[in-house]
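From the shared-data thread, chain only:
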Amino acid sequence: MIECPNCHNQELPGALFCRECGTQLVDLPGMTTQTIPDSAMNGAQPDLLEHLAPPPPTDVAISIFIMGSGEILPLEGRTEFTLGRSAEGQPVLPDIDLASYRAYEAGVSRLHVSITLGNEQALATDLGSANGTRINGLKIPPHKPVAVKHGDILTLGRLRIQLLIRR
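Structure, as tokens:
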């Protein structure tokens, strides 16, 4: 059996991708997540106060604001969403594909982070991404859900998104 390095699911020998989380189990030629040196990640943190959250849309519980693009993407119809980027031949796609926001160049993994809506809170979980996830500049540990609130800024690699949560 092959153990997935991301979620520890057991796969049959010869499996290329984990059926649970979509992690690539063998090295294949092609595009992988660009690794960003820690020195670039720990550089000057943006002034988080300069980014006031836009008002959340009134027709959905949670949306994400793609900072620098001006676009707001509603998250609707489910209680859990995966964010990442698509790549050619990828068998498991993220619910929210950030590829059109230069996600590859920003170091976003194919399955980077999940956002889960609970009764009283929302949770963000890094899915073992190559470049990590930060909430308001603080790196969160992989596979450990962390509570998030309206206005929090999530940094996936170097791509910054802001959560817009309507209560």
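The helical segments are 38-41, 103-106.
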